[in-house]
Batch of 3 targets.
Target 1
Amino acid sequence: MDITWADFVEGAVAAIHERFPDIPIHLEEEGGGEPARPCFIVRLAAARQVKEIDRRYLRTHSLVVEYLPDNVLTNFHEIAEALYDQLEAIQVAGSLCRGSQWSHEIKNGTLYFAADYSMYLLRSEAPSPKMQSFKQEGSIKNG
């Protein structure tokens, strides 16, 4: 499984940047206090993985995108509509990954947009030990 949580975050960042090239995008891990507004902040809110059959797993990443406006007259619902369109599907490690469970809310002057992205992963097979030697003996009975 070579796909990580960072691949999902990078896919969301690239999609947002494509639609809003002039608005800075920050990752939650960057820290350093309140960023200059307007800006987006992208973070991984949760992740879960379910074992399917054999080496196959279903991994889901829940991403949250915050939009911090530069003034109180911002139309948050227009920004949210653009995010619904832009984040419907994102590129994750070269594959298209469709979102689900989209939602948005506005609290304390900040737009919070959330979406889940699920992808099936195949865990590498552990190498099995090779047999040193094998000798088979037998005979055929007539009878």
Target 2
Amino acid sequence: MAWLYLFLAGLFEMAWAIGLKYTEGFSRLGSSLLTVAAMVVSLGLLGLALKTLPVGTAYAVWTGIGAVGTAALGIYLFGEPATAARLASVGLIVAGIVGLKLVT
């Protein structure tokens, strides 16, 4: 169950990272409230996962899911560049996440 909590926490991290773009410096109330709510949910789920998972593993996987998802959404939503080097770097993050899952 801890891995499910961690995965969901990573998804909510992606949501608040992308949400920050839409808050326009927290000047848009609706976007700001949704972003803060996603932050709270993400941290809450991370806290639940940390009850049983090692902190180093859980934190690295949480940030990795957020980084990979946010990079992918940045490419899709905002037209950010999808260069070979950038995609290879994202692939290395995915490899790290899989590696941590396999050894934990």
Target 3
Amino acid sequence: MSQYVAAVDQGTTSSRCMIFNHSGEPISTFQLEHQQIYPQPGWVEHDPSEVWEKTQACIRGAMKAVGLSASDIAAVGVTNQRETAVVWDRNTGRPLYNAIVWQDTRTDTLCDQFAAAGGQDRFRQKTGLPLATYFSGPKIRWILDNVEGVREAAIKGDAIFGNMDSWIIWNLTGGKNGGAHVTDVTNASRTMLMDLDGCKWDSGIADIMGIPMGMLPQIRPSSDPEGYGYTLENGPFGGKIPVCGDLGDQQAATVGQTCFSPGEAKNTYGTGCFMLLNTGTEIVHSENGLLTTPCYKFGDEKTVYALEGSIAFAGSMVQWLRDQMRIVNTAADIENLARTVDDNGGLYFVPAFSGLFAPYWRSDARGVMVGMTRYLERGHFARAVLEATAYQTREVLDAMNADSGVDLTALKVDGGMVANNLLMQVQADILGVPVIRPKVEESTALGAAYAAGLAVGFWKNTDEMRANWGMDKQWEPSADDTPRSKNYKLWKKAVTRTFDWVE
């Protein structure tokens, strides 16, 4: 009998494979980074072929580390960086251009053109999204307009599109030899081409954006008992396993944190920072700059929706300090460096490298550091970077409270940055509510595993998943109100300095 479920987690800076037992505990993990490509300022790309090669190596590494074969794995789930667009040839399997990453801003002119008739919220009522460079639809149009031969290939039916989940599933299940061209409701919603009501492609929006409908993958449930396809005998898993779970990374983390009831929320601290609030089976439109998005769809059950606050830069700020500014040698060093000072020294850092996401949605913004004096040292820069993540989260939480009418009493957190204990204490201080870290910090991969395992009966229901959740640590907010009032006011002032930089 198969004892485990595998999750393929294809992220912004790395790919990995994790294998979980029935208790939701990881028994193996293997992770590899891939190249970040910056052809021009504001452009961010990945090589889809490199990503697939690294993903295969991760699968083989995770299986080999604990001596597993395909017969030990009940199902495979996939989770992914959302909005990152890939267009490839269905006949050759060759990418027709690098993947355009969710952080990329090259489509700002296109978004302005689409907004000329109807404004930034032209499609929001149907899609839950504002017109922004963040989403996949304009990226597809850019490739069609700027890469020679792609539009002709799309019209012929040879060029197809997917977010990274579609690319990985297509390759896992056969590639050019019959691979499944599918996506789930959570990933489809991030294209700005899906109608939230019914979770179907909207041909009218696709026509306005100039995107042939034949390029788009079939939309399926996030947990699909029918399955999308099977892994290959000669593939990285070394045998035939159903691939039947698919969730965008932030929705996967919400499932991994077992936020199955309306009103439950989580915040993931990864490359970016993303807070989701489960709103149940009713679509709730935001009045405060948040996104309305599917949270998950399990089999034939109704789609569950969420409000989301998306922050572009969180962990990637640490990577920037390490790789480009050379202020720290490793990502883990930032906590120790930040602890060398008592506070930020008056320095505020707003990382609008690709504009501002929630709740502002300003593509004209660019990053700033304000409040610099000769008093500052390296530790203050490290502290300001950590605080930037916490203040951005506060802004999203304020918007979420306003939309939902419910004040959050505690925040569940996950992702790579939650290992930073100082950041978690700062976050509790700035929010004024407890911050709770689960035993399994990497909830994203666990959520993908849950979706796949649920589809094949490995987990019978959400109650079994809830029983697996356990708390690792909780941070209580300080009694000092300064971070929540005076310092937050200064942060908000710093944010205004980023506006209107790009003309």
